[in-house]
Write a structure and sequence with these properties.
The protein is an all-alpha fold and about 70 residues long. About 65% of the residues lie in helices and about 0% in strands.
């Protein structure tokens, strides 16, 4: 709960994660560290999270880099 409240960790569904990462980028963050294998999760769950990020979140973040270059 504390991590979520701090907005320094993007935990949640694709909408939430994309929104938080976008806010961090607007605040000046330039790098993103994705830790998806934690707490003894089964490999299937980790791979599912990675696939969901790639499919639903990453495409929304593509414009962040373009804004930086303009």
């Amino acid at each position: 709960d504390e991590l979520r409240a701090s907005r320094l960790a993007a935990i949640g569904g694709p909408e939430t994660v994309a929104q938080i990462v976008g806010e961090l980028a607007e605040a000046g963050a330039t790098d993103l560290l994705c830790l998806m294998d934690f707490g003894g999760l089964e490999q299937r769950a980790v791979l599912s999270s990675m696939e969901l990020f790639a499919r639903e979140v990453a495409p929304r973040l593509g414009g962040l880099r373009e804004k930086e270059l303009v």
